[in-house]
Please model this.
Amino acid sequence: MVARASRMTPPMEYVRLYEEAAGLDGVIAIHSTARGPAAGGCRFWTYADESAAMADAVRLAEGMSYKNAMAELPFGGGKAVLRRPAGAFDRTALFEAFGEAVERLEGRYVTAEDVGTSVSDMEAVARHTNHVAGRTALPGRAGGDPSPWTALGVFEAMRFAAGFRFGGGLSGMTVSVLGVGNVGAHLCDLLAEAGARLVVADIDPARCARIAEKHGASIVPVSEISGVAADVFAPCALGGVLDAATVSALQAQIVCGAANNQLSSEDVAGLLLERGLVYVPDYVANAGGIINVSAEYLHESTDEVRQRVLQIGPRVSALLDEAAQDALPPSTVADRIAERLMQPERVAEPA
Ligand code: NAD
Model:
């Protein structure tokens, strides 16, 4: 995704990470600490050069500020981006060195998993700092795999969006799901339980087959999923899926899914509005994962996670009402709300 042109860009702090012996090379970007410590995962990926890693960190850190503020979490936004070494390397030593770097920030940045990192990496980080989540869950406490929480949040967002558009629930609705991995498969379970019909697509045929067998879902090729006859389209694979071509092909009235950065460009939000389709902004719907991660850091229980995730639905309702009133794309209104929530005077207000 390109950075949104309409977004405000408060000062960004960068901490360059470089320790040759440990193979550590990357950056921590802190976008906002207005609501609390900058929270956002650690991406471990191959980048052509330092500026490509930096650009990714900036864009991802900004996105975390908006997502955390919108979910009303006591966190700002940040992200770590580490460059995967080209040759052999000691993974434990690398993530331990990263943990030391996080510790030097004295809690201004809280890390967790992101693309390319795992629970065992976070355990290595945790040997040097407490400012880390995404570790092994303890019974009754928040933590562990965030995907079921993300799926529940998307489901609730979809349920309230269906209420807004159709005046009813998801029973009897057809939902097309692109990507039935961790989140998509859990979402299908919830949708089937709610009485929705499923149409699924994934580059992995075995994953589709599992959903077909379990829930009687129809399977279509990936290239056809956005255009199938459905009431709701749920992108749960990669970002950038909504472009001019997919928007014009859509038969669904609602787009609501887990994938990050679904809009291939800002203009697409306008195209969805012109077509009268309801788009639930990705970062509003998919906040369940970060809600779980933040609860782990704050030593909260799974009940508290559930309560926070269940607030996503009413939040979507209010957002869609406001967008309809102002005749603006919901993504523009979401950014406006998140920016309001990032203002220090809003942060000080009791919940
Ligand atoms: P995953 O890797 O478990 O699942 C992704 C699925 O999409 C896989 O089944 C994969 O085969 C499929 N896929 C990949 N490329 C595809 C393509 N081009 N066309 C069709 N299918 C394709 O990932 P996940 O954890 O389920 O996350 C799904 C999306 O939700 C991602 O965009 C992720 O960033 C976002 N998200 C996930 C969480 C979470 O808690 N896991 C939280 C917030 C956002």
Q: What stands out?
A: The chain has a mean pLDDT of 94. The chain is about 45% helix and 15% strand. The pocket of nicotinamide-adenine-dinucleotide is lined by residues 146-147, 150, 178-184, 202-204, 207, 222, 236-239, 258-260, 286, 289 (CB under 6 Å).
